[in-house]
């Protein structure tokens, strides 16, 4: 499975109709949709599809045809996301009608091609299931610990400084095992 960290856009044209596809992290879906509706007030359709993992690691997906004939735009866009194993990602396709009807098959192809184009122009990141872990360390050991975390490419989501430093980490199972090997301290799972 893969996801995107940054918004990307691509434009696809078919028989004078313009399809502008935006691929973005799912967390930015609502704000991006509002922004695009303001930016493109004359656009005919704002078709979307998204897939994300919920708190139980289940894939939740949804799509909208936004006035296009049923099943010709949202669902094909969702199928392209699923076929590329994208999660935690959303695509919004803005259509400017060019005056020539594409028919249902033409719409399915055009929307699918627009989504494929924006995916091909995006940087996809491999998804790894990470767990939250806290690590408490003395100030004197902080720089050494941060060096090890950097070497293991472990993401530090937050730090709290009190009598000691509490590091909040996002780690894969493999990273956690390697960290436990290198550090003679206990890691505590965060709930």
SS summary, helix count: 5
Average pLDDT over all residues? 90
Instruction: Report the order of strands and helices.
Output: EEEHEEHEHEEHEEHE
CATH superfamily of the largest domain: Impact, N-terminal domain
> How many individual β-strands?
11
**Most strands sheet:** 5 strands, antiparallel
Name given to the CATH architecture of the largest domain: 2-Layer Sandwich
**How many separate domains make up the residues?**
2
> CATH topology of the largest domain, which one?
Ribosomal Protein S5, domain 2
Secondary-structure class: alpha+beta
The helical percent reads: 25-40%
Low-confidence stretches: none
Organism: Halarcobacter bivalviorum
Protein name: Translation regulator, IMPACT family (UPF0029 domain)
Domain UPF0029: 135-183
Pfam families: DUF1949, Impact_N
Quick structural summary:
By secondary structure, the protein is α+β, with helices and mostly antiparallel strands. The chain has five helices and eleven strands.
Tell me what the structure shows:
One of its GO terms (biological process) is regulation of translational initiation. One of its GO terms (cellular component) is cytoplasm. Residues 15-118 form the Impact N-terminal domain. This is Translation regulator, IMPACT family (UPF0029 domain). There is one protein chain. By secondary structure, the protein is α+β, with helices and mostly antiparallel strands. The chain has 5 helices and 11 strands. The strands form 3 sheets. Strands 2-3-6-4-5 form a 5-stranded antiparallel beta sheet, sandwiched between helices. Strands 9-10-8-11 form a 4-stranded antiparallel beta sheet. A two-stranded antiparallel sheet has the order 1-7. It is elongated and about 70 Å long.
């Amino acid at each position: 499975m893969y996801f995107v960290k940054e918004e990307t856009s691509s434009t696809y044209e078919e028989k004078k109709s313009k399809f502008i596809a935006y691929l973005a992290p799912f967390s930015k879906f609502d704000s991006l949709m509002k922004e695009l509706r303001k930016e493109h007030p004359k656009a005919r359709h704002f078709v979307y599809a998204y897939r994300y993992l919920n708190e139980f690691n289940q894939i939740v997906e949804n799509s909208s045809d936004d006035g296009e004939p049923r099943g010709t735009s949202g669902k094909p866009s969702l199928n392209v996301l699923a076929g590329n194993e994208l999660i935690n990602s959303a695509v919004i396709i803005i259509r400017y009608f060019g005056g020539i009807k594409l028919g249902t098959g033409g719409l399915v192809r055009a929307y699918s091609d627009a989504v494929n184009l924006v995916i091909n122009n995006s940087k996809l990141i491999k998804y790894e299931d990470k767990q939250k872990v806290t690590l408490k360390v003395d100030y004197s050991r902080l720089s050494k610990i941060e060096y090890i975390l950097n070497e293991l490419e472990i993401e530090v989501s937050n730090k709290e400084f009190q009598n000691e430093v509490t590091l909040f980490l996002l780690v894969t199972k493999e990273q956690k095992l390697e960290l436990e090997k290198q550090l003679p301290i206990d890691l505590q799972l965060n709930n």
